[in-house]
């Protein structure tokens, strides 16, 4: 039982749910900290987009945040005033848009803490970032950089090598491109697509088949991550004992599915079957409360409403309870997991965390 370095994960990541009321300005509280990235999805309406705002891109000058849409490749929206309006001390404020506040619909919001400020330029790489906001303790940073169109490195500020780098052009129509070291830097995937991961394991056009280091990640010439004249956002994640885990496993194609050890009870898990054209899946502990299995999931690559599968959220990891092609096929499945509670909080904790 490894002691955790973060004893209260909800100070760095937390999910909140609410029911929309179509108010023109509505404060959502209960996050427990000021979020630096908020990702919202309408759970009932299968036509509504995922919506993401962050502290680095900030406000648009018209009374709202600059918005990206995780399930779509379009450039950021810089004029919307009715979606996410502000990031607040204990949550965020939304407008009346149906994506984030449709009357009577159930809504979910996932929230991460970075540096609680826009940050400053990181100069560790050959390409300097415009801004980098860092929460090194929780292994999360948000960076903005300008593409060069040639092989480059970009600083992430974490002080340790990230295992996930998610990149999106904010200025142009480009896919959300994800490097996950559980599969390797010679592969690439698109979070806004159900497609299997691309690359042969030695692909160089995206990440130059080069794993991130303690200070930088590498981008090559593909326009999705490093086109000349384009602006990009990079969201970097590093596993932190007792708080987060970026990993992979090979599915066993069984209803008695894989058990994956995390060292904590999960609050959020994001899955992708990298070897097949299958949708992504996001499960959390706030849409299904109290009892196992957790059933409800959303798909980052499309606008679908809540769907159902079966996953046990355990005190020390998760257990698949259904032969679900997204998570159980005999391919490499990558995941990102964030904690509700560490298994053992600290040296003085005599009783390990229990499951749901």
Describe the structure.
The protein has 3 helices and 23 strands. It is 3% helix and 36% strand. A 6-stranded antiparallel beta sheet has the order 8-9-15-11-12-13. Strands 1-7-3-4 form a 4-stranded antiparallel beta sheet. Strand 21 and strand 22 form a beta hairpin. It has 356 residues and is mostly beta strands. It has 3 domains: 104 residues, no CATH class; 109 residues, no CATH class; 99 residues, no CATH class.
The gist of it:
This protein is mainly beta.
Outline the secondary-structure elements.
Elements: E1 13-19, E2 26-29, E3 37-42, E4 51-54, E5 84-88, E6 91-94, H1 98-101, E7 106-112, E8 129-135, E9 140-146, E10 152-155, E11 164-169, E12 177-180, E13 189-190, E14 216-219, H2 223-226, E15 231-237, E16 244-250, E17 259-261, E18 264-273, E19 281-284, E20 294-297, E21 307-313, E22 317-320, H3 325-328, E23 332-342
Descriptive tags:
single chain; 356 residues; mainly beta; 6-stranded antiparallel sheet; 4-stranded antiparallel sheet; 3 helices; 36% strand
Major beta sheet, strand line-up: 8-9-15-11-12-13
Strand content: 35-45%
The H-and-E topology, N to C, reads as: EEEEEEHEEEEEEEEHEEEEEEEEHE
Compute the number of helices: 3
Count all strands and give the number.
23
């Amino acid at each position: 039982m490894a002691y955790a370095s973060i004893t209260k994960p909800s100070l760095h990541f937390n999910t909140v749910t609410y029911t929309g009321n179509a108010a023109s300005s509505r404060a959502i509280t209960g996050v427990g900290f000021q979020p630096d990235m908020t990702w919202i999805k309408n759970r009932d309406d299968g036509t509504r987009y995922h919506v993401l705002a962050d502290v680095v891109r900030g406000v648009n000058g018209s009374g709202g945040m600059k918005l990206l849409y995780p399930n779509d490749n379009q450039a950021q929206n810089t004029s919307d005033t009715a979606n996410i309006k502000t990031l607040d001390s204990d949550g965020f404020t939304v407008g009346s848009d149906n994506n984030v506040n449709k009357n009577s619909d159930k809504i979910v919001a996932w929230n991460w803490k970075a540096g609680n400020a826009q940050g400053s330029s990181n100069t560790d790489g050959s390409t300097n970032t415009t801004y980098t906001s860092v929460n090194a303790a929780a292994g999360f940073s948000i960076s903005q950089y300008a593409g060069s169109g040639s092989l480059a490195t970009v600083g992430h500020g974490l002080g340790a090598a990230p295992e996930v780098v998610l990149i999106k052009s904010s200025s142009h129509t480009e896919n959300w491109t994800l490097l996950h070291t559980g599969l390797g830097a010679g592969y690439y995937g698109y979070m806004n697509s159900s497609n299997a991961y691309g690359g042969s394991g030695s692909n160089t056009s995206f990440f130059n088949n080069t794993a991130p280091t303690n200070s930088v990640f590498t981008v090559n010439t593909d326009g999705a991550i490093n086109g000349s004249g384009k602006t990009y956002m990079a969201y970097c994640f590093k596993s932190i004992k007792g708080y987060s885990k970026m990993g992979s496993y090979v599915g066993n194609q069984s209803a008695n599915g894989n058990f994956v050890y995390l060292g904590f009870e999960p609050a959020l898990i994001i899955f992708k079957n990298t070897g097949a054209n299958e949708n992504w899946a996001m499960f959390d502990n706030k849409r299904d409360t109290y009892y196992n299995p957790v059933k409800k999931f959303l798909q980052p690559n499309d606008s679908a409403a809540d769907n159902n599968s079966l996953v046990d959220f355990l005190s020390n990891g998760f257990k698949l309870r259904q032969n679900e092609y997204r998570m159980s096929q005999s391919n490499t499945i990558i995941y990102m997991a964030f904690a509700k509670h560490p298994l053992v909080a600290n040296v003085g904790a005599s009783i390990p965390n229990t499951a749901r």
